[in-house]
Structure formats: C-alpha cells, structure tokens
Amino acid sequence: MFLRRTGLCLLRSSRETVPLVRRQLATAATAPHSKLEDFRTGETDPANHNKSHLSRFYTIPVDVRKQIFAYGGLPKTFERQTKTFNENCLMVRQPAVELIGYLKRTDFRKPVNRFVLYGKDGVGKSLILAHMLHYGYSQEFVLVHVPWVANWMKRAKETALSSTHEGCLDLPLDGAAWLVHFKHQNAKLLTKLDLKVSREYVWSKRETTPAGSPILELVEHGINRAKFSCDAIAALLQELREQSTEGKLRTMVVIDGFNAFFHPHTRILMENKVRATPEKLTLTKPFLDITSHGWSNGVCILAVDRMALTEDRMESDLPLYQLRREGFEHLDPFVPVRVDNYSEEEYYSCVQYYLNRKWIQTTADGFDKELEFLSGRNPYKLMQLCASV
C-alpha cells in the first residue's frame, strides 16, 4: 500500500469491519467517477450555503477568484495546490455556515458586529475568511481585506518618517500595495455605487483631492503617489465608515492575523535603532478605527493566529491570550467563533477530493485510517502529508 507523490509508506491495517464511507475510499481508485461526487456540491453561491452543504466542496468561479484573491487572501500552500488541481475549491465548513447565518439575521442599522475566528495552527481559519470574502462579494459588500497583518510587522518593504504623524513611520510601498488590492476587489462595485469623497484632502501645496471627487480618485492617488499611501488609506477608511453609517453602502472588514496589531514589538527599527511598536506605524490606527464599534451598516470578521506574532507565541489559542488585554478590550463585545480540526465527515470528504484529483492513490484498505492517525485530522498537516515531494 502506498501514497502517490509522497515518501510516506503505509502499514497494513487490520481486517476489522470498515464503515461504508471507508470502503468507498478504499475502492476509489477503481470505482466509477460518479462514486466520487458525493463530496461536491453544485451550489456555488455562498449566500445559499447551509447545513445541507456541510463537508462538501464548492467551486469558486475563475473570474470571481481573480477579482477577490488576485493579490492575496489564500494561503500560499493552498494556492499551489489549486494550481495543481486546476480548480479552486473550498470546503463548506461549520464556522462559515454559522457566520453566514449570523449575517443573514443581522440588523445592519445597529453598531457593527465583530466576529473573531480562533483555533489551533492549521485548522483552516484563513480559508473560512476566504469563504466569507466570497460571501461578501456576492452580497455587494465593499471589502476591506488585509490578507496577513504580520507581513507589515515582520517584512515591511520600506519605511519612511511620517509627515503627518510626528514620531511615527509610514510603510509607503505596503500601503500602495494594499490600495491596489482594495481597488482590484472593489472597483466595479464602487463605480456602480458612485461614491464621492465628503471633504477636501490636501496632500501638498499642489496636490489635493477636492470634495465631491469619486472615491476611487482617493485610491488612485495613494497608488500613484506611494509617499501618501498611508494617509490615503486613513482617509479612505474614514470615508467608508461615515458613508456606511449614512446607508450609502455596506462594508465587510476581513483581517487575518489581527492580533499582530497588539504585539509589543515589530521587527521594524526606529531611527534610534529601537524596535517600533505597532502603534508607531501609521497603518495601524485606520484599521483599529474601522474595527471599533463606532459605525454601522457593516461587519468585521477577524482571525487571531499564533503565527501572526513576531515572537513569544502564546501556548493558548484563545482570543484573550492572542489579543492580549488591549486587543480584547478594543473588540469587546465580540462573538468568538472556534475553528477546529476536520470532523470525521470533513476528513473523509477531503480524502475523497484528493482521490478524485488523483493526488493520492491506494491499492488496499486502511490507508485513510493511517492518514487520519498521522494528521490528527488537521487540515494543514493532511495537505502536507499528501503534497508532492
């Protein structure tokens, strides 16, 4: 018995009675193609996903994937896998269905609800966020999406002294890159909504954005003049908060690694060679403002992750430990949503998918039980075990 594309040798299993789903998996290599379709759902609109679709994979249309995830939002290992499989499929999981249910029952006239995803490493928090981004896109929310906050704190492309906030640092190239991401996700919707800026923004003696200009001009200015990108982001997020509250649009804030905003130190050095704290970065405050409760007609879906911390990773994955006291109080009250390892049904659905894509093959019973034991049904570990060598 063996797994194709890995160096993992599998031991023979006992001849005990195997449940029906395991017998289907053990004979999948020779079974008709139709036998493998139980793990899929044809419902591609995330707004329609409910408990009847749990543990099944749905396909994100190519054009939607290019618009939402062209500049980030999917883990790199998952992206490599989707290129190999030549399709972008996400599993419909309980936390996503739970969040969709909450949003359908939300009164958006009230202050924004904040949802915090948490769980152990590799359980799929980022893919739940990707599912929610697709939902927000399908429901015409303006997306304010940060794929991974820790990239700003650990691997800033460039730093510069802020001209508007004394003693703070701008991340001009990272700010411009985020504005490109925002524009790519939302340009069509913003054009349709025809949003205008509510006030004049003065960037220098010769550069201004007049009141009444299309909001995309604000975005374009930050992209074309990276020097002002962080200030442009602050102005943009303020406009979105105010105009959402006025009922002109609905905004969905999705941030992965949100707890990095509250870590004591970044890896960025100030002029005096002391490591900067997150509040010394001008990108921090706008995203903390838009995740506060002082506006309406929107929603914040955030994920906390041990990997987002620069150092001193907490043993506990609970929000109180990951956010520390400051971050917890910033979000309180919020709705915690736990993401766990695959359930038994989810695990076998994932293995069926890998078999269907011919990513793994088998010639005897028991391979699925050994994969289950080795991975602990952790989605990331399972993906790594089945990855090519």
Description:
Helix 13 packs across helix 14. Helices cover 39% and strands 11% of the residues. It is built from 14 helices and 11 strands. 43% of the residues are buried. A hairpin with a 5-residue loop joins strand 7 and strand 8. It is an alpha/beta fold and 389 residues long. A 5-stranded parallel β-sheet has the order 4-9-10-3-11, sandwiched between helices. It has a two-stranded antiparallel sheet with strand order 1-2. It has 2 domains: 115 residues, no CATH class; 245 residues, no CATH class. The longest helix is centred in the middle third of the chain and has 22 residues.
Mind sketching the topology for me?
Elements: H1 20-26, E1 57-59, H2 62-69, H3 76-85, E2 89-91, H4 94-104, E3 113-118, H5 125-138, E4 142-146, H6 150-154, E5 160-161, E6 169-170, H7 172-193, E7 201-202, E8 208-209, H8 215-224, H9 229-245, E9 251-256, H10 284-290, E10 298-303, H11 319-331, E11 335-338, H12 344-356, H13 367-375, H14 379-385
Parallel strand pairs: 3-10, 3-11, 4-9, 9-10
Antiparallel strand pairs: 1-2, 5-6, 7-8
Number of strands: 11
Main beta sheet strand tally, sense and closure = 5 strands, parallel
Cα end-to-end separation = 18 Å
Shape: globular
Helical content, roughly? 25-40%
Order of helices and strands: HEHHEHEHEHEEHEEHHEHEHEHHH
- Rg to the nearest angstrom? 23 Å
List keywords for this structure.
single chain; 389 residues; alpha/beta; 2 domains; 5-stranded parallel β-sheet; two-stranded antiparallel ribbon; 11 strands; 39% helix; globular
Short summary of the structure?
Helix content is 39%, strand content 11%. The chain has helices at 20-26, 62-69, 76-85, 94-104, 125-138, 150-154, 172-193, 215-224, 229-245, 284-290, 319-331, 344-356, 367-375, 379-385; strands at 57-59, 89-91, 113-118, 142-146, 160-161, 169-170, 201-202, 208-209, 251-256, 298-303, 335-338. The strands form four sheets. The protein has a five-stranded parallel sheet with strand order 4-9-10-3-11, sandwiched between helices. A two-stranded antiparallel sheet has the order 1-2.
